[in-house]
Amino acid sequence: MASIKPSAHLNEVRYEIRGALTRRARELEAAGLPIIKLNIGNPARYGFTVPEHLRQAIAAHLHESEAYGHEQGLEEAREAIAAQQRARGARQVEVERIFIGNGVSELIDLSLRALLQPGDEVLLPSPDYPLWSAATILNGGVPRYYRCLAENRHLPDPEEIEALVTPRTRALVLINPNNPTGAVYPRALLEQIVAIAARHRLLLLCDEIYDEILYDGTHFQPVAQVAGNTPCISFGGLSKVHRACGYRVGWLSLSGDVASTREYRDALQLLAALRLCANVTAQWAVIPALQDTPTIGALTAPGGRLHEARKAVLEGVAASDYLDLVTPGGALYAFPRVRTDRIANFNDDTFALRLLEEESVLVVPGSSFNVPTSRHVRLTLLPQPAQLRDVFVRIERVLERMAAEQTPRAAIA
């Protein structure tokens, strides 16, 4: 029989976080080799648990979760989200401008599908979370990347962003706190970026899923507050801050001028209705998640597990002869870089494969995040601090071998 050909849209789509390296890791595990997995931000796989009061809220409403719900989500949950957004300074946020989805991933796809015509452009950070690039391409759009270089603390250059705008540009994506770098954008920078969006009539798409995961007094500035009447979508959810990835509950909040976004809001509602509704059962956890005492702070404060894991990463990089790192201010990841003066001819894909094959550690190459030439790898801060300290011993061994394999001339270049 003739083979079934997949869609050509997939030719440019990558998601190496769960790609070839992960498949190889599964093969090694099947052969009996234990693998240290640092490739994904999935808290429950590292011993984190959902706060008990969220579980109780779901259990108490199981009998109310057996029918399809409203296509935009439970009204009570949307009211809680709207209240949170208004408290953060977002303008013109009402219940009918809130959409709950099966995770932020689904809502990213819906937001771009409702917006793009074939050939429209979306400004994306490089590195980005690759779902953003994939959703842009799969919905007929064209990604245009603005750089977030380590030399600039992984913050974007507003002048570079504006230089990328063309008559086909429709939206500007911000990931803050950032995945994969951990960068947290200061207000002054966001004000410049919002001004660009306002000048060129771009929709701001703000991935803020890590909004409360912050370290050492770092301040998170919601973009919607800065945006004012400029149309803005803010994405949030239960997966990271509340350690509930498997619940698949995310939301988007549409803020800014109502008249100019009315047709777009209606398009979002149509797409939401076509998939009937999001998971009803888990939506009951939204209300206590947003209204009760936050629980993430105990983990990110000094002595908390995430803070100590980050400390172990910072110490591992500081002790390395080969690595440097922009200290992550938020989120669940670090994005260390191999120094050019130590290993000149470095390939992040080769390194990641060798680290897996030789030292049983799974990380994600930086090039997987739509960086043209990368010397970075991304690793998660979710493992125990002691395990992360061991990981850096293993990383150093592979880098030592790679350095030794280069000729003296290449090493000096």
Automatic annotation (TrEMBL):
UniProt protein name: alanine transaminase
Enzyme class label: transferase
Organism: Dyella acidiphila
Pfam family, one: Aminotran_1_2
Family under the similarity heading: Belongs to the class-I pyridoxal-phosphate-dependent aminotransferase family.
GO molecular function, one term: transaminase activity
Keywords: Aminotransferase, Pyridoxal phosphate, Transferase
Gene3D superfamilies named in the record: Aspartate Aminotransferase, domain 1 (3.90.1150.10), Type I PLP-dependent aspartate aminotransferase-like (Major domain) (3.40.640.10)
Residue span, Aminotransferase class I/classII large domain: 35-391
EC code: 2.6.1.2
Cofactor(s) required for function per UniProt: pyridoxal 5'-phosphate
Top-level division of the source organism's lineage: Bacteria
